[in-house]
Q: What sequence folds into this?
């Protein structure tokens, strides 16, 4: 800390005497670049001779310092003082003389480095900021290791040249600002569209991938409401039912309507119903809002079971989806259904990502964190809460239509009962509240866990009834919900983020 104070004093004192202009320094080093290794590489390698000479001087200094610290008595005394100055003093090493030598050597090395740097870029007082880079270099390489200092310097230099810097607002506001994330997302989408349809079995497509994608879309919708806006909802299954029955009635009563239009209109129908049931959120919140949305769930269950118009006067209450066709493309194979659902999920997941990053998403999060403070700074509670219910209901209604038409094919109101609402809530909690990625992770977990539990007794050779496996599934879900709420409220998404951060810092975890 004292050296930082000296640095600032010398900075101010020097600029007072000589000003803040940049001065040229010519020490006789050649500045013209030369082409080397023309016989080895076509066109050769263009290098600056000034850089080559600087590297040679640095290598010579490193060699001299290494010999000084390793082979001379004074160097060994310096290392002893660095390890434990009290023990060094007790065996007769004079600390005063050692401190003078240390500062003298450091000053000489700094002088040489400053002359080389000033010759290359000009003499300026901002060189003090360059000197601060020595701190991360010695931390990375090791305080008592000269080879480590070389490695640390290479790491810092490569990091500066290859780091991802943002110099414009457009770069800072990118959907995926980190290059690795962009590459990863593009790779996943490419594999999902090009590779999975070729290698996945019919069982994998029907039983795992299609339900996973549809439930992930519904979880994104619920996460918008619960995770981003903080409005608790226990009626998500009912809003899925609205989308399913709206799509069914549109397809049956207007048979010439394009299937894409049917799905979009089904989402809009769920939006209207969601807004109507979301209006009480202006007056109530927390437990009372949860009860209100639960009442919506029971009301919608009753309506679709009792009002025959919704089921087109079906005597059994069960309805079947008409054949799926889009612009002449008959969607009847598992691969076709998978690609249709994947297309919807990609489009609306990216739309949700953009929404939560924009002004409307920030208003949702402000209402979630502290609604009174949000209102004080000008955010309208009516607009924020109603738009959250509208967007959430649209996503959930669209997922309901896909669930009924693409996955089930035939269904009854029990397919969207309160258990479906709880299942989606479990996905959001386990995956991560306020995270689009968490919606996918939670959906994958909920879809794969029952399948894994059914196969686990066979793998382990333990006889277990189907009923017992079902009971264990409920026990696991309950335990995991309590675990994530207490230990990691941000769910699997947070664990994923922590893992990525550790990999980015490896092998320097501290």
A:
């Amino acid at each position: 800390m004292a050296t930082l104070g000296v640095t600032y004093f010398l900075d101010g004192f020097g600029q007072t005497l000589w000003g803040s202009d940049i001065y040229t320094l010519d020490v006789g080093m050649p500045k013209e670049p030369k082409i080397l290794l023309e016989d080895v590489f076509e066109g050769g390698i263009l290098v600056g001779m000034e850089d080559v000479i600087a590297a040679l001087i640095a290598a010579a200094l490193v060699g001299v310092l290494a010999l000084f610290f390793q082979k001379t008595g004074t160097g060994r005394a310096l290392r002893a003082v660095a390890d434990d100055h009290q023990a060094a003093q007790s065996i007769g090493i004079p600390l005063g003389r050692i401190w003078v030598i240390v500062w003298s050597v450091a000053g000489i090395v700094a002088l040489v480095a400053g002359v080389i740097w000033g010759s290359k870029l000009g003499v300026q007082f901002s060189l003090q900021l360059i000197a601060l880079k020595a701190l991360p270099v010695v931390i990375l390489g090791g305080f008592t290791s000269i080879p480590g200092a070389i490695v640390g310097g290479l790491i810092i230099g490569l990091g500066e040249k290859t780091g991802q810097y943002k110099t414009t607002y457009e770069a800072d506001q990118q959907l995926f600002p980190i290059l690795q994330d962009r590459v990863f997302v593009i790779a996943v989408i490419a594999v999902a569209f090009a590779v999975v349809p070729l290698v996945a079995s019919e069982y994998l497509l029907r039983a795992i991938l299609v339900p996973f994608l549809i439930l992930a879309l519904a979880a994104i919708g619920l996460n918008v409401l619960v995770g981003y806006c903080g409005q608790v909802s226990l009626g998500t299954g009912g809003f899925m039912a609205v989308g399913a029955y709206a799509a069914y009635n549109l397809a049956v009563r207007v048979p010439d309507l394009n299937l894409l239009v049917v799905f979009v209109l089904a989402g809009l129908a769920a939006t209207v119903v969601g807004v109507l049931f979301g209006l009480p959120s202006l007056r109530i919140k927390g437990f009372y809002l949860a009860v209100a949305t639960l009442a919506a769930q029971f009301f919608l269950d009753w309506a679709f079971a009792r009002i025959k118009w919704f089921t087109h006067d079906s005597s059994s209450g069960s309805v079947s989806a008409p054949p799926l066709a889009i612009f002449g493309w008959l969607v009847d194979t598992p691969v076709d259904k998978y690609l249709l659902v994947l297309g919807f999920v990609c489009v609306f997941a990216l739309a949700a990502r953009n929404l939560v990053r924009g002004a409307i998403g920030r208003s949702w999060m402000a209402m979630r964190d502290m609604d009174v403070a949000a209102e004080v700074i000008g955010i309208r509670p009516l607009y924020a809460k109603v738009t959250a219910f509208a967007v959430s209901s649209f996503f959930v209604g669209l997922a309901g239509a896909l669930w009924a038409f693409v996955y089930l094919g035939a269904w009854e109101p029990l397919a969207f009962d309160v258990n479906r609402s709880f299942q989606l809530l479990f996905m959001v909690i386990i995956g991560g509240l306020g995270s689009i990625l968490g919606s996918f992770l939670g959906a994958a977990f909920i879809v794969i866990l029952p399948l894994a539990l059914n196969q686990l007794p066979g793998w382990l050779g333990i006889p277990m009834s189907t009923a017992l496996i079902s009971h264990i599934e409920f026990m696991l879900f309950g335990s995991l919900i309590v675990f994530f709420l207490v230990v990691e409220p941000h769910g699997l998404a947070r664990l994923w983020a922590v893992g990525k951060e550790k990999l980015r810092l490896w092998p320097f975890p501290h």
